[in-house]
Amino acid sequence: MTTSEVSDEDFQEILAQTRHFVRTAVIPREQEILASDRVPDDLREQAKKMGLFGYAIPQEWGGLGLDLSQDVELAMELGYTSLALRSMFGTNNGIAGQVLVGFGTDEQKARWLEPMATGDVVASFALTEPGAGSNPSGLRTKAVRQGDDWVITGQKRFITNAPTADLFVVFARSRPADADGAGIAVFLVPADTAGVQVGAKDAKMGQEGAWTADVSFDDVRVPAQALVGGSEDIGYRAAMISLARGRVHIAALAVGAAQRALDESVAYAATATQGGTPIGDFQLVQAMLADQQTGVMAGRALVRDTARQWVRGEDRRVAPSAAKLFCTEMAGDVADLAVQIHGGSGYMREVPVERIYRDVRLLRLYEGTSEIQRLIIGSNLVKTAQKERS
Ligand SMILES: Cc1cc2nc3c(=O)[nH]c(=O)nc-3n(C[C@H](O)[C@H](O)[C@H](O)COP(=O)(O)OP(=O)(O)OC[C@H]3O[C@@H](n4cnc5c(N)ncnc54)[C@H](O)[C@@H]3O)c2cc1C
């Protein structure tokens, strides 16, 4: 079953083009991306032309219109190279874009989604604050109604693509949490609005070429039409649903990165020698390869099954968290083994597995840490059992 606007045949073409782009245009530039801490402009332009800034945005609004089952296949290809490439258009398709796709008014969609799909507008998702990361319901950014306007004040941190963003999708408290909800609304704030300030680019452990920064909002005035969906009660639900969908995508990205680490490991083991013997002939090295292969296969199967369950509406709570938990931890283990298989070379900057080891570390942290995924899985299982008993 497919819910997608894109036929299987057309999708296979998109997938093949993406694979070709990743393998022939991006992989040869990985060192350049790492050393310059930026994705070169010509690769950005090529990604724009291919529609990659809007692959998950519906066709009605100018995107390619892939559903989540197709999204994960694409993500497994994108994960095969520097994760900065995917990050460049990840917020438009994912956490920021899906808030608009799922909850925006037609007027808001018409204004923003088409330029996001072409890549002329970069949107950032601004939820996290100091002290409100794993628990965003504790966020302190405030939105106060003044006549027809809203005035937003607060601090966000670690915001992906903030240094290049044209639009911030900003979560802010419009009233205290009460029995009716979390009191969190979400607003569309153009980056050039007076009072919006983007901090210096963060110095990160990995994913060179993908940028994050603090963003501060100092009495930022936006019109009533900036309130997503025209309702104050949408924000928290929009964040949770967008993040749950994003977790399936991140799981797929992890599988792609793990596959690359495995392929690099096999190629190295087959050719590098010790005492004239290829290290791949040693059974202890073969055991590491076997564990990598098994992890990748299990991750890929889990991601595909989870995406299928999402598009059928069967499970949008437990499965996304289980897939993200398993696949991102698996990618960490596979990358660690890849460094081990490469010996001392695996610790050297020019070697792909060294980059992968650092790139994938982030996947266990953002869009919900592994601990938060465990809490979501466990609490939902118990709640369901309790409901069935009452
Ligand atoms: C490179 C990067 C890009 C990011 N991009 C974005 C973005 O675009 N937009 C955005 O809004 N945010 C973004 N984030 C923020 C990211 O989602 C948060 O960093 C993440 O959710 C963790 O929150 P925290 O950093 O506040 O850590 P904390 O929540 O303080 O977590 C610290 C530790 O405590 C654990 N912990 C916390 N609460 C519990 C609990 N209840 N039970 C058990 N353990 C717990 C965590 O699992 C973790 O091990 C990004 C972060 C990074 C590093």
From TrEMBL:
GO molecular function terms noted in the UniProt entry: acyl-CoA dehydrogenase activity; flavin adenine dinucleotide binding
InterPro entries assigned: Acyl-CoA_DH_CS, Acyl-CoA_Oxase/DH_mid-dom, Acyl-CoA_Oxase/DH_mid-dom_sf, AcylCo_DH-like_C, AcylCo_DH/oxidase_C, AcylCoA_DH/ox_N, AcylCoA_DH/ox_N_sf, AcylCoA_DH/oxidase_NM_dom_sf
Cofactor list: FAD
Keyword entries, A-Z: FAD, Flavoprotein, Oxidoreductase
Domain of life: Bacteria
ATP-binding listed as a keyword: no
Catalytic reactions of this protein: a 2,3-saturated acyl-CoA + A = a 2,3-dehydroacyl-CoA + AH2
Domain Acyl-CoA oxidase/dehydrogenase middle, first and last residues per copy: 124-220
Domain Acyl-CoA dehydrogenase/oxidase C-terminal: start-end pairs: 235-381
SUPFAM superfamilies documented for this protein: Acyl-CoA dehydrogenase C-terminal domain-like, Acyl-CoA dehydrogenase NM domain-like
All copies of domain Acyl-CoA dehydrogenase/oxidase N-terminal, residue ranges: 9-120
One Pfam family linked to the record: Acyl-CoA_dh_1
Family: Belongs to the acyl-CoA dehydrogenase family.
Annotated protein name in UniProt: Acyl-CoA dehydrogenase
Higher taxonomy: Bacteria, Bacillati, Actinomycetota, Actinomycetes, Mycobacteriales
